[in-house]
Amino acid sequence: MSRTAVVILNWNGKDFLGQFIPSVLECMPEGDVLYVADNGSEDGSVSLLRERWPEQVRLILLDRNYGFTGGYNRALGYLDREHAGEFDYYLLLNSDIEVTPGWLSELEEFMDSRPRCAVCAPKILSFSRRSWFEHAGASGGFVDRWYFPYCRGRILDRIEEDRGQYDTPCRVFWASGAACMVRAEVWRQLGGLDESFFAHMEEIDMCWRAQLAGWEVWVDPASKVYHVGGGTLPNNSPRKLYLNFRNNLLMMYKNLPAESRRRIIFTRMCVDGLIGCVYLLTGRTAFFKAVLRAHRDFRSMRGAAVLSSQEYSVPRPKVSIIRLAVGGFRYPSGKVGD
208: closest CA among 314, 80, 105, 289? Predict the structure, then answer.
């Protein structure tokens, strides 16, 4: 029987832990283990965990905030060292997620039945509007031809109500880091997350690298969770915009084929520039500056980026985010609906 280590990465999320850990523990299959990796919190998170769940929750204490990427790399590195071979899967779970009965066993059975599946996500719905998809992942993630991410159930900031229209399992481009199951051997093969990202886009980069190594990424909507969202950075934060734009360019630089890398990135940066001009003309100066900083820092960071080996090809999507925004959801090939 497969075993999973569910790992919640926490940084000053005491209230979320108190609210949502009970549902995680209640829905844990026998043999699976819940860990909380604490990124140097100062809000009493560790004391809460020790007082309320001294036996049920295992702690991994980090000395400071290493971000999403560094925190998970250290936490899962600890599991690889101290519990080598004990777990088949690692489940990355945000602290602001409410899970549902059967969600974890469903993902385990799904991945057990698909040995080439490296990463699998549940359907992610909004905690506050429970019949609507949530921004971070919805029912599986894709990218457009310029590598802007979108989802089944979310295009840009337009979110759909869940009416069962995306309930079929589906191969996708990326799974949300808010809740995703990763095959432990693949995590080790890929070397975890890219710590230069710090946070945002790192899961898309990991999923892209997995596909370049011959693995698959899926969403299994029969597994369902509810996500608060914006627990670390709100969606309208210039800091979040900066990380998304910078890391998207880094991801493209690392993973695109050498023969098309410069051309596609140049065009994408031109598109970013137009978006920045819209921010400037509409008085959102902080967002305009965030785009400029993202491009500047991408240029300074790309020299240290580790380029992915191109063992397998990953076709470039055909659809554009503009077509998606106007005409609604399409798969990357241009296909409409399942």
Answer: 314
- With b meaning 16 or more CB within 10 Å and e meaning fewer, what string describes 163-198? eeebeebbebbbbbbbbbbbbbebbeebebbbbbbb
Per domain, the residue ranges of the chain are 4-227, 238-308
Residue 240: C-alpha distances to residues 198, 232, 243, 261 (Å): 11, 10, 5, 25
Phi, psi (deg, nearest 5) at residue 217: -125, 135
Radius of gyration of the chain (CA): 19
Q: Which amino acid is at 71?
A: G
Question: For the purposes of burial, counting CB atoms within 10 Å of the CB of 7, is it exposed (0-12), middle (13-18) or buried (19 or more)?
Answer: buried
Termini Cα distance of the chain: 32
Q: Report the C-alpha gap between 313 and 322 in whole angstroms.
A: 25
pLDDT of residue 276 exceeding 90, the answer is: yes
HSE at residue 69, side-chain half, CA atoms within 13 A, is 18
**C-alpha distances in Å from residue 83, one per residue of 77, 79, 189, 292, 301:** 10, 5, 17, 44, 34
pLDDT in tens, 196-249: 999 899 999 999 999 999 999 999 999 999 999 865 555 678 999 999 999 999
For residue 336, what pLDDT is reported? 72
The pair of structure tokens assigned to 88 is 């088949």
Report the DSSP beta bridge partners of residue 58: 35
* Residue 269, SS3 per DSSP: helix
Give the homologous superfamily in CATH for domain 4-227. Answer: Spore Coat Polysaccharide Biosynthesis Protein SpsA; Chain A (3.90.550.10)
Report residue 46: phi and psi, to 5°.
-65, -40
Average pLDDT, the chain: 95
Please give the model's pTM, rounded to 2 decimal places.
0.95
Q: What angle do CA 35, 197, 72 make, to 5 degrees?
A: 10
Report residue 57's pLDDT band, with 50, 70 and 90 as the boundaries.
very high
Of residues 212, 147, 139, the one with CA closest to residue 176: 139
